[in-house]
Amino acid sequence: MSAPVGSRLTEAELDQLQQSQHTHYNHYDRPPLPFACLSARGIAMEAVELTGPHRGETFTLYDASGGYGSACLGAGNDLVGRSLQRAVAASGYVTDEIASLERARLLDRLFGAEGRWSDRFPAEDYHVAGRNSGSEGLELALRLVLESRFDIRRLRHRPGREKRDTILAFEGAWHGWTQGLLPLLNRRHYRVGLPGLAPGEDYGVRVEHIPFGDADALDEYVAANADRLLAVVVEPVQGDAGILLPPPGYLRHLARLCADSRAWLVADEVLTFAKTGRWFGMHDEDGPVPTDVTVIGKSLGMGALSTSMVIARRELRARATGTISTSDLRPLTSTVIHDGLGHIENTGLLEHSRRLGSRLTETLRALVQRFPDVYTDSRGLGVMHGVELSGAAAARLDALRTHVLRAGVYVEFMAGAGKRSRGLRYVHPTMRIAPPLITTEAEADEIVERLGEGTRRFQETL
């Protein structure tokens, strides 16, 4: 066990923690991890063992997951605490029907004449909505593109849009688990046994998948389906597929094809937002890659709120009152986003993450070389990296994770892209390294060192 701290819990408290794991819904179809977090500051958690010979012992656990990729400022951040306090004390709780000073400050700072993102999303061309989560944001994005096919007042097809019944997605993609998003996932595990789409019916839609990053497959598909293509939904970096990066120029080429075929380009930046060394992953050496809808989330809530933002072209609208949300940029949410984004910008955390990304690229590649029986590849940028498992390690993923946890690092494992078409290789589950933006280079080095120790212990069991 790494960095033991001691023991300060009673047996009754340990029993309470274990009972809570039994009561809390288990999403993973496996026994819960025998650890609990007692407190946290920055990227360090005080954790406790719940079972076995070390039951009750506490130790320091570094968070290399950033709280499912959401806690970009780490735990216990003073600015976030002050922002929440200010919002609760003074910001009010009005709905979107009444203007809010906090919402106005946020939207002006981002999209106003001198706004941070005004060049990318000028206010005369784009409007913005807020939602509770990335999944809800993607649901709204889909609604907007689906309703673009017909006249909202007369509720019938717009002339010339009758054939637009196809959404293109990518193999290995993850856009959320809600019912409307399941068709975007080409994974039978998530879809079988649940109601699907109804292509061929009035206003029906079909979803098709091609491999991510394959320019030839993209060209062939669009050439054959341009007249039916309604929208393309893409992650700038595929997350759950194993942190798969597109080849240079691919995203810009995709944007051009969408524009030429009059299909909407929807960028799912829920995970990539503020993690690639820039605000947005839809970017290349020529600058921002244009999109029609961009959905951001996770880091947007600074680890304190679950929230998302949908930035869409103004011509994309839905029927009146059909997309009202309790969480549409309420004052408290707007306050936290405003203050958090300002802090990231003022302290140079995006620039820092680019340097940190270069460091992680180097040290994680060395980790793969050190343990070729456990890991096969590493890839990533900024604070978004993946270390792909070997087949043997993937078969014992839970054991690997437990050894890494006991060595003092909390990590997540992505499903991997699995089997892909057109002869592309199988992508096994991948360990995601996505620490908070505030992580220092020394802490990043310590994370990789602890990963190495946990991996060594695991390898001894193979």
Characterization of the model:
The protein has 13 helices and 20 strands. The mean pLDDT is 95. It has a seven-stranded mixed β-sheet with strand order 5-15-14-11-10-8-9, sandwiched between helices. Strands 1, 2, 3, 4 and 18 form a five-stranded mixed β-sheet that branches. Strands 16-17-20-19 form a four-stranded antiparallel β-sheet. It has helices at 11-23, 66-69, 78-90, 101-111, 134-147, 188-191, 215-225, 250-261, 331-346, 349-370, 391-394, 397-406, 441-459, and strands at 4-6, 35-41, 44-49, 58-63, 126-131, 150-151, 156-157, 166-170, 206-210, 229-234, 264-269, 283-284, 287-288, 293-297, 308-313, 375-381, 384-389, 409-410, 412-414, 430-433. With 462 residues, it is α/β, with parallel strands linked by helices. The chain has a domain at 120-328: Type I PLP-dependent aspartate aminotransferase-like (Major domain) (Aspartate Aminotransferase, domain 2, 3-Layer(aba) Sandwich). Belongs to the class-III pyridoxal-phosphate-dependent aminotransferase family.
Task: Give the SSE map.
Blueprint: E1 4-6, H1 11-23, E2 35-41, E3 44-49, E4 58-63, H2 66-69, H3 78-90, H4 101-111, E5 126-131, H5 134-147, E6 150-151, E7 156-157, E8 166-170, H6 188-191, E9 206-210, H7 215-225, E10 229-234, H8 250-261, E11 264-269, E12 283-284, E13 287-288, E14 293-297, E15 308-313, H9 331-346, H10 349-370, E16 375-381, E17 384-389, H11 391-394, H12 397-406, E18 409-410, E19 412-414, E20 430-433, H13 441-459
Parallel strand pairs: 4-18, 8-9, 8-10, 10-11, 11-14
Antiparallel strand pairs: 1-4, 2-3, 3-4, 5-15, 6-7, 12-13, 14-15, 16-17, 17-20, 19-20
Helix pairs in contact: 3-9, 4-9, 7-8, 10-13, 12-13
